[in-house]
Design brief:
NADH dehydrogenase (ubiquinone) activity; 73% helix; quinone binding; 1% strand; mainly alpha; quinone; translocase
């Protein structure tokens, strides 16, 4: 590639990524050369500033005609912009949690590493959002995944953190290998790594043996990505990793990593597998294999909610709750309704605020066990109310954004042909089951006598985070049209996704 060709690309499409990359590089150098006496929290504020700058510039890209650069490997369309907004907002809140995070053991020595590793992981997720090629897609996936392994074990003197990091690395390596193996079949049959070109070539396939190999590729990629989104039975790592990792890292895995997984699923499945004919040539391969997605969604919803009932540690309970929410989102993917992408975008946005609120509450109060919430309404009534509203949102009670998100998924499952009645019933049934463990937190906070005292840390910053997230949970529940109007006015129902 000569210099003229390099300069001819519309590099402004990658300015948000360049901002994050430049800041991550700067923070790594500052962390290396600054004296040990310099408090690394200030590096976190630089990271927050870079996320705000990337978010502002991304907003200026809304409305641009979709285009691709670097020989169609990096694509800027409405889908990429919309989901990058979710990723950047979530990243900003997670970094604020990290700034106020104060574990029992000293973390000053490694705090600088957290900030630039987190930005690298965010960069990987953003690249995945715009990837139009298997190579860039896999590079983004590995940027996020490899950084995540280190972040989980960042508390190097904390044995549970070390154990969870080891489990995450082993399981993650296997999942990555399976995903890459599935992608290799796609490349081998299509003869290209460009996703849109691949879809065009595979659309014309008639060789039955090739179609069986593509079905195998679908199942391999689905299995690998099911690990990333913590779907059962590929969820084995989730409870231990959520419990052992620092709270900001757990929040990152629960929101950004899960969102990136669904971004990848949508990019791959809609662009490629939906356009591949099945053996009978009467439908697409994705529709022919829809039952596999349905089973995965059903098992994930049932297992996540049932096992959460037995948990006494709050982070493990939230881990199984996260598994259940992955199942709800898989229902939307399985149904494949006309408004699937809008439904997933809204649900991830709502889930972002609810999850950040609950992890910020846990961090503020420095608690781990369910019984430690006893008497919270008397000791800190405002925190008890915030906890109650957050739990109501996660449970999907009317008046919260969680209810709107689940309602949209339910309607999507009933609006397609064939209608997914069984998945809709399981979604309702498991949601009702989830009331038991979500309301258990409320019962302890309001109807149990206090038997524990806690020392709040990072009180001011955490309180601001909690206030914003709880307000958004209620606001999007009462006025969901605010989010949908923004989506439809600026992204036109993602009309340019396949252009």
């Amino acid at each position: 590639m000569d210099l003229d060709t390099l300069l001819s690309f519309s590099w402004h499409a990658m300015v948000p990524e360049f901002i994050i990359l430049g800041t991550a590089t700067l923070l790594s150098l500052l962390d290396l050369f600054l004296p040990r006496s310099f408090h690394r929290k200030w590096l976190g504020w630089l990271g927050v500033g870079s996320i705000v700058a990337a978010l502002i510039f991304l907003l200026t890209l809304i409305g641009d005609t979709p285009f691709a650069i670097l020989y169609d490997t990096f694509r800027l369309d409405s889908f990429a912009i919309a989901f990058k907004l979710v990723l950047l907002v979530a990243a900003g809140f997670v970094l604020l949690l990290a700034i106020s995070y104060e574990p029992k053991e000293e973390l000053t020595e490694f705090r600088g590493e957290f900030f630039y590793l987190f930005l690298v992981a965010l960069l990987g997720a953003m690249i995945m959002s715009s990837s139009a090629d298997l190579i860039t897609l896999f590079v983004g996936l590995e940027l996020m995944t490899l950084s995540s392994y280190i972040l989980v074990g960042i508390r190097k003197k904390h044995l549970p953190s070390n154990e969870s990091a080891m489990k995450y690395v082993i399981n993650g390596g296997i999942a990555t290998a399976i995903t890459l193996f599935g992608m290799s079949y796609l490349y081998g049959i299509a003869g290209t790594t460009n996703i849109l070109e691949m879809a065009g070539r595979l659309q014309e396939l008639t060789n039955t043996q090739h179609l069986f190999l593509l079905a195998l590729a679908f199942l391999m990629i689905l299995a690998g990505l099911a690990f990333k989104i913590a779907a059962a039975p590929f969820h084995m790592w989730t409870p231990d990793v959520y419990e052992g990792a620092p709270i900001p890292v757990t929040a990152f895995l629960s929101i950004i990593s899960k969102a990136a997984g669904f971004i990848l699923i949508i990019r791959m499945f809609i662009t490629v597998f939906y356009h591949i004919p099945d053996v009978s040539n009467n439908s697409s391969l994705l529709m022919a294999l829809q039952n596999f997605l349905a089973v995965l969604a059903a098992v994930t919803m049932i297992w996540g909610n049932l096992v959460a009932l037995r948990q006494t540690k709050i982070k493990r309970m939230l881990a199984y709750s996260s598994i259940a929410h992955a199942g709800y989102l898989l229902v939307a993917v399985t149904a494949f309704s006309a408004f699937m992408v809008e439904t997933i975008w809204f649900y991830l946005t709502a889930y972002l605020f609810m999850t950040i609120a609950v992890f910020s509450l846990l961090q503020l109060m420095n608690i781990e066990e369910l019984k430690q919430l006893s008497g919270l309404s008397k000791r800190a009534p405002l925190l008890a109310v915030a906890l109650a509203l957050t739990m109501l949102g996660l449970a999907g009670i009317p008046g919260t954004s969680g209810f709107i998100g689940k309602l949209n998924i339910f309607l999507g499952a009933l609006s397609t042909e064939p209608t997914h009645y069984l998945l809709a019933v399981i979604l309702i049934a498991t949601t009702v089951i989830s009331y038991i463990y979500y309301f258990k937190l409320i019962i302890y906070a309001f109807f149990r006598e206090a038997n524990h005292t806690f020392q709040m840390s990072g009180k001011k910053l955490n309180s601001i985070i909690i206030s914003i997230c709880v307000m958004m949970t209620v606001l999007l529940g009462v006025f969901p049209q605010l989010a949908y109007d923004f989506l439809h006015q600026n992204f036109l129902s993602f009309y340019d996704f396949l252009q």
